Amino acid sequence: MMAEQSTRPVEPAGAGPERLRVFLVDDHAMFRAGVRAELGAHVEVVGEASTVAEAVSRIAATEPDVVLLDVHMPDGGGRAVLEAIRRSHPQVRFLALSVSDAAEDVIGLIRAGARGYVTKTISPDELAAAIRRVADGDAVFSPRLAGFVLDAFAARPDAPVADPELDQLTNREREVLRLLARGYAYKEIARELYISIKTVETHVSNVLRKLQMSNRYELSRWAADRRLV
Fold it and tell me: Is the same domain home to 52 and 90?
């Protein structure tokens, strides 16, 4: 006897679950283009923004599943974006994607409501997996960054992370300081942050003046004492 024929429609080859909708926030156009290209096979990139105001407006309009959020941008940085969107669209989840792996940046974003924090050295496959986990409600950190969060919340769960000397520096000056303390040459810092060597020199000069130091070696020791390296 002939088997009963199924009436269920046949899925096309390669069909799978609906792809996650992701929004990119970063003030470097070249970096956004690279992330978009690398993630194209894994998720649907529904939009991008380079400023806080632009990000808040476009995220509200597109309502993505996950926002990949840079930490250091003008006008309040990633934290300002996160805080604005969380009030109006609490279902949107945030994964910080930053060049910075400093404790105060990680803890600040998590206190503001991000579900995870990874650095820009992450591979495309690892980033796609992190996005999926955040969308599912998991928290995602590298082991070192997770240690920062655990230490901060266990030791002083309600205390803000503050350092009067560090607070003098702009976000960009902190990035330059961190790379300088790791032994990067000015040319390497310029390439890493997509800025000119002259701009790097200006930032270093400003940091030395604000912290009242005379050379990069003093800066390196100062940064190491604050676990910025």
Answer: yes
End-to-end Cα spacing for the chain? 74
Query: How many structural domains is the chain composed of?
Result: 2
Q: Is 86 found in the same domain as 64?
A: yes
Length of the chain: 229
Phi and psi torsions of 50, nearest 5°: -115, -10
172 lies in some domain? yes
Residue 217 falls within a domain, yes or no?
yes
Tens digit of each residue's pLDDT (9 = 90 or more) over 20-50: 999 999 988 898 999 999 998 889 999 999 9
Q: Please indicate, yes or no, whether residues 129 and 174 belong to a single structural domain of this protein.
A: no
Q: What is the dihedral of CA 8, 9, 10, 12, to 10 degrees?
A: -150
In whole angstroms, give the CA distance from residue 123 to residue 120.
Answer: 8
Model confidence, pTM? 0.61
